[in-house]
Amino acid sequence: MAMRKVGFIGLGNVGGKLAGSLARHGVPLTVRDLNPELEAPFVAAGANRANSPRAMAQAVDVVITCLPSPAACAQVMEAADGVLAGLGAGKVWLEMSTTDAAEVRRLGARVESQGSVALDCPVSGGCHRAATGNISILAGGSRAASILKVITNYLATVHLSALTEALTVAKVAGMDMNTAYEAIRISSGNSFVHETESQVILNGSRDISFTMDLVIKDVGLFDRLAHELGVPVELSPLVLGIFRDGARRYGPRELSDNIIRRLEEACGVKVLGEGFPAQMVDDEPEAPGYEVVPRRGATTP
After folding, report:
1. Could you tell me the sign of the dihedral formed by the alpha carbons of 127, 130, 132, 135, in that order?
2. How far apart (Å, rounded) are the C-alpha atoms in residues 179 and 196?
3. What tens digit of pLDDT does each residue of 191-204 get?
4. Is the pLDDT of residue 209 over 70?
5. For the chain, what percent of residues have pLDDT higher than 70?
6. Per-domain residue ranges for the chain?
7. If you compute the radius of gyration of the chain from its CA atoms, what whole number of angstroms results?
8. Backbone angles phi, psi at 79, to 5 degrees
9. How confident is the model over 206-214, as a mean pLDDT?
10. DSSP per position, 193-222
11. Angle made by CA atoms 112, 4, 78, in degrees to the nearest 5
12. Which of the pair, 239 or 293, is modelled with greater confidence?
């Protein structure tokens, strides 16, 4: 059976790495991004370049979008030369952006009205795992994957906010920051965010390939969803306020982990350790994908 032809729109920090994983495994690939410099390496390696989203949708079997905002996705899908104009029976749209659940349902209905299949498939795990393909994909279909993705991004930001406070307190208390890192890592206070983002914070690069404007967008999606559902959340407005203040101080495109600068400046310290990496690299070997089945009821050893 011939391998399906795949089109990938959005070659940014995450999308470029996801598309790279497809290319690495020999998937027939067509790419598109507003920045030609991001397309160039793929074209040089043998991928096709689409002149428009419509042309891509006409030429491939599966269209993947990985874009920075609901508005960007709507434009790519619904413009006169957008994806919808090129879809037809038997084609598939996979939405891998972090976006608004209602917007995914709206666009998905338009896709399905043309005989195509729409799947909400946001990813989670960070750019370093996107690069190796060892990343979680929340494949939705009729399930609310976009809601789960908004929840996981919110939780990651809460963890980051708490870690910046914890690490700053450790620094002001005179602790060795390498010792503080390891103590948290082996304790009940550990998290995926600590094992990744704390390292680039303590390096000083603060480069987790994510920016404050994207944090504000993601936490804003969670906060709006919670209020629409009538859930009286208390933490998300606080976290939004922290990052809005960070964006005002340092700019919306400042690296999100540099939110710790607010505390460093208030306390007159630099929260740094020794020997931590400037960027995270996934050192686990690339593994075949598999489905994670939710646990139901009691489990046995």
Report:
1. positive
2. 16
3. 999 999 999 999 99
4. yes
5. 97
6. 6-143, 147-267
7. 21
8. -60, 165
9. 95
10. HHHHHHHHHHHS---SS-BHHHHHHHHHHH
11. 35
12. 239
User: What H or E segment, with its residue span, contains residue 47?
Assistant: none
Indicate the burial class of 192 (C-beta count within 10 angstroms; 0-12, 13-18, 19 or more): middle
At residue 297, the pLDDT reads: 75
Q: What is the pLDDT of residues 62-97, one digit of tens each?
A: 999 999 988 999 999 999 999 999 999 999 999 998
123, burial (CB in 10 Å: exposed 0-12, middle 13-18, buried 19+) = buried
Which residue matches tokens 């307190």? Answer: 169
Enumerate the H helices of the chain as residue ranges: 15-24, 36-44, 53-59, 70-78, 101-113, 127-132, 145-172, 177-185, 192-203, 212-228, 235-250, 261-267
Element at 117 (helix H, strand E):
strand 117-120
Q: What is the CATH code of the structural domain delimited by 6-143?
A: 3.40.50.720
Residue 249, classified by CB atoms within 10 Å of its CB into exposed (0-12), middle (13-18) or buried (19+), is middle
Q: Which among 212, 126, 199, 114 has a CA at the least distance from the CA of 163?
A: 199
| Contacts with 145 (C-beta within 8 Å, 6 or more apart), sequence order | 120, 121, 122, 138, 139
Q: Which fold has domain 147-267?
A: N-(1-d-carboxylethyl)-l-norvaline Dehydrogenase; domain 2 (1.10.1040)
Residue 261 in tokens: 């600068």
Residue with tokens 């905002």: 69
Q: Which tokens sit at 21?
A: 């994983």
- pTM of the complete model: 0.82
**Residue 219 main-chain phi, psi, to 5 deg:** -70, -35
CA distance between the termini of the chain: 41
